[in-house]
Amino acid sequence: MGNKQSSSSSTTNKKWDGNAMSQNDFMERDTVLVLNNDDIVIGSESKKASHVFSTDQSRGVLHRAFSVCLFDSSTGEMLLQKRASTKITFPNVWTNTCCSHPLHGMEVNEVDGPEDVKDGSVKGVKSAAVRKLEHELGIPVGELPIENFKFLTRLHYWAADTVTHGEKSPWGEHEIDYVLFITVPTKDSITLKPHPDEVDDVCWVTQSKLLEMFADDNLLFSPWFRLIANRWMIGGGENGKGGWWDDLNRTMNTDDFCDYENIHRFDPPTEHLGGGGDAGPWLDTKEAPSANGTVEDTVGDASKKQGAYGKIKTHKESKLSQLMHIDEVCSAISLLYINPLKSNLESDNIKKSFDTDDLAFCDDILCKVSRSFAAVIRQLPSELLVDVLIFYLVLRALDTIEDDMTFFASNDEKVKVLLAFHKTALVDPEWKMMGCGEGDERRLLEEFPKCHSVFAALREDSRRVISDITLRMATGMAEFVDKDLGQGTVDVKQYNRYCHFVAGLVGEGLSRLFSASGLEKPALATELYLSDQMGLFLQKTNIIRDYLEDYVDGRAFWPQTVWKKYSASGDLGYFANPATVEHETAALNCIDELVTDALELVPDCLSYLSKLRCAEVFRFCAIPQVMAIATLDKCYHNKDVFSGVVKIRKGMSCALINGTTDINGVHSIFHRFASSILRQAELSRKKGFEDPSYERTVKACTTILELTETEAKRSGSSVVGSTLMLSTAAVGCLTYKYPNGSNTTALTTAIASVGMFSLFKTSFMKYVGKKGVSSLMPASKLTEKK
What we know:
Layout: H1 23-29, E1 31-35, E2 41-46, H2 47-51, E3 63-72, E4 78-83, E5 94-95, E6 98-100, H3 114-118, H4 123-137, E7 150-160, H5 162-165, E8 172-184, E9 199-205, H6 207-215, H7 223-233, H8 248-253, E10 263-266, E11 314-315, H9 319-323, H10 326-338, H11 348-353, H12 356-369, H13 371-378, H14 385-403, H15 411-424, H16 439-446, H17 448-456, H18 460-481, H19 492-516, H20 528-545, H21 547-553, H22 560-563, H23 581-599, H24 602-610, H25 615-635, E12 645-646, H26 650-658, H27 663-686, H28 694-714, H29 716-735, H30 744-773, H31 779-785
């Protein structure tokens, strides 16, 4: 259950002093906002690295910029500047009043999110403009109030600085540029003291004078200013509205020219094509552009999910690489076709107890909002299945309300809806909410009466549990609504508290539902601490994995008391797309500490699982737990977390599911991945990597290994047998050729042999389980006992 907050970042302590830095200092120390093609901040990068045009990044790195145009209201003149000859990029060119970049980690926050663009406020960009106008032109902060700036639109452009540095120029610009207008009563009402390292000259010009300058071949102009002036400022403008400069009063005092929805995209003039990466026309082509000038693979339909889901690239192994894991391929075949998770949704007592159409809707929408969780719920016994299904959908509906950052007029209004949800949605059979959320989540709210119909038919004790947890979760959400989580939670205490509200309470609710069903002992309902810890383990794993998605979405949860120890800029975005050894080291130190923090919850998770007696309930709880430990292994010391979403292989997921039939299998899985993390920690240590969390990581892994050692030894013979069979099959495949000289049939035979062995092993382990190794009992047996 994710909680989305305002995308504005918290203020930090970074004091920026332009007068104390050289042009090289700016290139090395300034950290610009790295963007995806939709103008979503996905990280930070040094000014130097983002402006390099090379074969590796033919158009540099897409980042955010602003262009200020300042006018004298009394004469209509605009202030131009000539960029200093000492500038590294685009020196000696005339341009608009001021053009630069908002930065990460500023004393006054300069990071804007989608909602800031939507309402036109963009205080971050405007704060950056005030900072640079003072630095470049010496205009004191108080002379240009931030509220006087008018944000008009955005343009996405790129340009190699070939005019200055030649056709193979190593420098260029690739920006989404925010165009800002501001007027002053007269030119004499402001102070101008241009900085000699920034500005060679200034002049006030009328429209006609600017056109004369454009026509003078001896004068150089920045490509971005030419685009802005010719496209919007002068002449007929768009749609017959006239140019922005034609009627400054209308431009500044109405929204007639404001376009906050679209990002206008332009390739550069011919003379600015090329550069170190030989970049050609691109933004006018049909390819979807990305931050580095390539077409990136994204997962999911972003239009059907809230937040940043689907907008961040996913790191995944190639199909060939996945197929090389033959044991996982066999596991997938077994799970999908031979021994799949059985759905109990069609059982007779469920059909008799609930409206068929309404239940079908609930099942369908569950698959839409959480495909992976649906199969795990469906395999639950009929006595419990619908209770858990509705519990999940109710909380997902509540989460959708909390997630929507634009639907409510104020946070107070949202809080009222959240706190009343258990009395409205769960009491009124006609309650629904129109227009809140996106995609399938919106549909869930708009057709909620169908969920209520099924909820109302549940046992009274189940309804009471669901209503209680819903209220308490809503109370927790209300506590976090006004908190600025753009830079994560304040400390580990708040981090844990957030995880308790959105996951720990879910664990408690499930334990109570398990007990209420009679499938688990009444005492399980009182295991509040263990239930909470199990929920925290899952939630922390998701938060660790989803660093970039959450940061881009503006509701991050990594605790500041952890990540600020490693962030040189004082900004959470510092870790995104690390470009230097120091940068990468800091990022890995940070994630290693967070993974270790999550690993310390494992003993309590295993303790909880050991208290379960129903086989189906055990599997329902165990599957997400083993997925979590595998995901932590994937995230540990992995820099890919900072440039996308890392996921375990699908075949591995199938193998893990197959291994959750009893506590021995689960312990074996935890032993395997704790061993893997420990090996990674020790290997990086041997290579000279200094990890402040190393001792803590070793202790956490060692504790897990000690708890699971017995079960790991029991499964050792099976592992050896599997290895021998796989080796034999592989050797046969490589050495044997059929008469026609082809290895194809041999490969097929080898894979088939492995598959047969896998099936034999699975059957054998089931047989052993039936002989008393497992204390779990299927629901049918427990029901018979009652």
